[in-house]
Amino acid sequence: MIDENLVRSVAHLARIAIPEARVPGLAKELAHIVEYVDQLAALDVQGVAPLTHTNAGANVYREDEVAPSLPVEAVMALAPARSGNFYRVPKVIGDA
Amino acid sequence: MNAFPPVPEMVAAVRSKRVAPDHFVTESLRRLEQHGGTLGAVLSLTKERAQADLAPLSARLAGGEDLPLAGVPIAIKDNICVRGTTTTCGSRILESYRPPYDATAVERLVRAGAVIVAKTNLDEFAMGSSTENSAFFPAKNPWDLARVPGGSSGGSASVVAAALVPAALGSETGGSVRQPAAFTGIAGLKPTYGRVSRYGLVAFGSSLDQIGTFARTAADAALIHAVIAGRDPRDATSSDHPVEPNQARSMDLKGLRVGIPKEGHDSAIDARIRARLSATQERLLAAGAVIRELSLPHAKYAIPTYYIVATAEASSNLARHDGMHCGVAAPPEKDLLHQYLRNRAQGFGAEVTRRILLGTFCLSSGYYDAYYERAMRVRSLLARDYRAAFEQVDVLLGPTTPTPAFKHGEKTSDPLQMYLADVLTAGANLAGVPALSIRAGHLTEGGSELPIGLQLTGPAWSENLLFRVGAAIESYWPEADRLPPFVRSQA
């Protein structure tokens, strides 16, 4: 089921460029792993609720109050490229 | 070189001024500087931070502050944020990341008087079972430098086992504290999910991740754990279940119901480890414990379930690493999409890429129901197994790992073989229950003494019980106190 085309499309969804030479190897490795996890298909899980949280209690609420946040300069100082307090990135919106 | 004294003795010495507040910290930094490199265990020494935290220590002690870890040097896995120090996660993509804040666990350690001395090596983003997936260099096992210390918290385990520090923090998603603890002959706790705040732990699989503690003994680990445990408003999944006072001592085992899952005696597990388990059962029986054999029928599905749930969560969590919020500026691409594609391709190593792709696949349209949704249902069945077991017994005992520490390169060619190293540990993460790996002596293989680890698992919030039973089991194997040959031969 996992073939080279699926690897390419999943890699695109995951926003990771995969060199074409690496695609066949990854397809093989992932197919091997998926074949292994496929043993779950044999289990009858009808009527079993999915477990999303192991300590699920009541929802956690807090007051909607202003609290201190990280100093903006300390965070922005990590930016590889910035313009004032903005991250500088390539153009997002195409030419009209 | 000798081991550090037990943590309570170190603290007593500092508090009573028998030694200077920096005494153990200075010694630990000296050892880390001298031997950390040989072990491939240390990614950075945090000397400046250590000095900054030491500076007020005398005044704090004089002011009568209660400092349960006064002057105790502690190493931190490099996926846990320590303000002002690099926190790389063992990854190129975070190579220059210096978090402007402390993880809650770190903040609580420092508040208790502990001093952070090093950031330790790990499998990239905590994905691996050998610390060979670090983007920088592999870590080594002090018992045999040709072998792995386990992973993903291999650096933390290695520095504690080699007596470079008395204790360290690691993190678990599927066994990343207990498996390295077993491979290096020390104590390692995976707490109940929600027991320790995850604030400042770089996320991998958020429904599984917990910060865990390494120390030479269960008693020392108990002391550290008590400091970092408890509700934190900055982690909504942390629990307000009361933290019991630390009881770092052995206990009367009369009447204690100990369950032995038959999966722990499976023939796939090294016969010498099974023999040590049997011998431990006999000792427990002689001490008055009640031994019951039982089964966790879905335990055999733990690894396939884990590798769907953990990779799915990872693919989502790691989406935030775009190389544009921190790090070094990459040459600009023609648009944002291509910048993402390139930054992430260059920033992530082979195993992290593999897991992100697997997780993305499991969550993708058309496959979600068959993989992620089904795995969450199997997770329910597994959690039920544990609940049923804890209606019959107080704790479960079994091996932590199917084999002793393996050699570098032995499992790197087949990702699936590496995944199976977590076959006995991933269940506790999926069920959210606490588990403690403790040292149970050694076996000899290829001329090396290699540690054996046994694992105690309990119901939610039973950490103290695990520590106390663990302390009893440690005492059955006095040779477990030995230091690795690597350490014995050093000044």
Task: Return the average pLDDT of chain B rounded to an integer.
Answer: 95
Cα separation of the termini of chain A: 41 Å
Strand content of chain B: 5-15%
**Number of E-state strands of chain A:** 2
Order of helices and strands of chain A: HHHEE
Reading off the top of the CATH hierarchy, the class of chain B is best stated as Alpha Beta
Mean pLDDT of chain A: 91
Coarse shape of chain A:
flat
**Radius of gyration of chain A, CA atoms, in whole angstroms:** 23 Å
The gist of it:
The complex is a heterodimer of chains A (96) and B (491). In chain A, α1 crosses α2.
Give an account of the 3D structure.
The complex is a heterodimer of chains A (96) and B (491). With 96 residues, chain A is mainly alpha-helical. Chain A has a domain at 4-42. Chain A has 3 helices and 2 strands; from the N terminus they run αααββ. In chain A, strands 1-2 form a two-stranded antiparallel sheet. Chain A starts with a helix and ends in a 9-residue tail after the last strand. The relative contact order of chain B is 0.14. By secondary structure, chain B is of the alpha/beta class. The mean pLDDT of chain B is 95. Chain B has a single domain, classed as Amidase signature (AS) domain (Amidase signature (AS) enzymes), CATH 3.90.1300. Helices cover 38% and strands 14% of the residues of chain B. Classes of the chains: A mainly alpha (96), B alpha/beta (491). At the A-B interface, helix 1 and helix 2 of A face helix 10, helix 11, helix 12, helix 13 and helix 14 of B.
